[in-house]
Structure formats: structure tokens, C-alpha cells
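RECORD TYPE: protein structure
NAME: Methyltransferase domain-containing protein
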Amino acid sequence: MDLFEKATVMHYHRHRIAEFQHGTVESLGWRGAHSQQIRYQVLAKVGNLSGKTILDAGCGYGDLKAFLDQHFSGFDYIGIDQMPEFIAEARKRYEGIERTTFYQTDFSTAELPQVDYVIASGVLGYRCKDDSFYTAMIGKLYNSARIALAFNMLDKSHFPQHDLLIGHDREEILTLCRVLSPRVECFNDYLEDDFTVLMYRDEVDGQLPV
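PREDICTED:
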């Protein structure tokens, strides 16, 4: 993704902030809190995150952290996002909360830490003229995870043409993931235009939360 494309994404979110107010899920680009929470529920199927280290790539305001707190305990959370407005709000919301850190950085260029789980919700949905960007980023995020990567994408077969966002061919993405990972799971029955992929380091890794 080149500088112009990244600037376009930032401009889009700043326009959404002006329209829907700072701190809202709509300013993040979601249709509403319901669809965001549904996506989180599916991503959380990646395993029992209690006691683990988690990287949230494209964390926004840290809404995923609040969701995980309702279902898991004792985990270390790292959120990264390129939008300074999002990171400033996230730090404000979670000020003083232990084992919770936010960094303003571009996940596509930053050196990512080694963690147990990487979760990426929405970050692979922005249009980029370089088709190899998406496969490279899946590989990069997966390489940062010791246990598993969970990410979602818009489904090309249902998502309409959009100037900024882009849908992907689910089978093509799964073919790539199966080359990288010995165990891949996919969910596409929760929202019409979305799918979630779970990529594990080991065939037996991952335990569904109780």
C-alpha cells in the first residue's frame, strides 16, 4: 500500500469522525456496534486467550480489548493503529489498565512483536492496487503469532464495488493460508459479506473458549 493509499484511508476515517463523532464505531468504518461485535465473536473462536499475549492489528479505539475482557482473563494486550486520533482515544479509555499497551504505527511497515495470538479485524479490507499486498500482510501477521492468527476480510461474492474498500475471493485466500499453515479454519455464516480465517501454527493448537 503506497503513501497515497494510506493517506486516503486516514482521510476517510477523519471524515467519518467529523460525521459520526470521535469514539464511535461508525467513525471506525463499521456499520454499527452489532456487526462489530459479531465479528469479534467469530475471531475469538481462535482459542482460549486467557493468560496469553495478543496483538490487535488495526485496533481502532481498543474495542476488541473490551470484548476480550468479557470472555477471557489475565492476557496481555497490544493494540496498534496508524491513526493518531484512534490511539489517543484508546490510551485515554484504558489509562491505568495493566497489561494493556497502545502504539501508533503502521502494521504493514512496523516490526511486529512475537505474541501468542494476532487478531486483525478490518485491516485487510482497504483497496490497494498492489494485489500482493494482502498476501504479504497475511504472511507477516502469521509470522508474528506463536499460536495462531485470526483475521477477517470482505467477501468479493457479496460485497459491492466500493472506492475505498475491497472484497476478496475466499477460496483464493484459503488456498494461500493452507500453504502457510498446517491447520486453517474458515467461517462465513455470520454476516453476508464477511469471512473469518483462523491460521494455526500446529495442527492441534487452539482451544475454543469455555
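COMMENT: The chain has one domain: 32-200.
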